[in-house]
Design brief:
The protein is α/β, with parallel strands linked by helices and about 170 residues long. It has 6 helices and 5 strands, in the order αββαβαααβαβ.
């Protein structure tokens, strides 16, 4: 099994052929498609390897939509605070196609932590980032995980993270 497949299983994006996946006491493999989507929106934050945003609306609107789809109150100030922490607040009203790869990756991190998930899954969250942005993103992910008492799982080939993360599992 590859790293992305592992994340897709844990995020409820695909179902395993056998077995269970228990997150915070909930067997996510037993949920219907509708219920897994709702569960994911409320409990799992995902940073995909390639950022996915609606191209026709700006970053702020994309993030407001994330809150709405999860059934949360839309909070522009909360979003702007997260974007400021990631040093991309000035890009809130920009459309995704005008952002650099690094800015898009940081916007993806903002989306993943926005709904205060119980689990944060990150697939190569720092691959498109310079060293300073890499450190900021990892610090935000770690701080958010601690603040929310959430599990954080990062899969990466980025050697810069080996001295930053607490626990490492190497897949061969």
């Amino acid at each position: 099994m590859g790293k992305t497949t592992l994340l897709h299983l844990l995020g409820g994006l695909i179902k395993p052929k056998t077995g269970e996946i228990i997150i915070d006491g909930q067997d996510i493999t037993s949920l219907s498609s509708k219920n897994i989507d709702q569960y994911r929106g409320q409990n799992i934050g995902i940073v995909f390897q390639k950022p996915h945003f609606i191209a026709s609306i700006n970053i702020l609107s994309n993030l407001l939509l994330t809150q709405k789809l999860a059934g949360r109150k839309q909070d522009k100030n909360e979003i702007l605070a997260i974007l400021e922490n990631l040093e991309i607040k000035h890009r809130a009203y920009a459309k995704p196609n005008t952002l650099s790869q690094g800015e898009l990756q940081r916007a993806s991190v903002a989306r993943a932590v926005l709904n205060k998930p119980k689990v944060i899954l990150a697939d190569e969250p720092t691959s498109a980032l310079d060293d300073q942005s890499c450190e900021q993103v990892i610090q935000l992910l770690q701080k958010t995980a601690v603040d929310l008492d959430a599990a954080l799982l990062i899969v990466t080939h980025d050697g810069r993270l080996k001295d930053i993360v607490n626990h490492q599992i190497l897949l061969g």
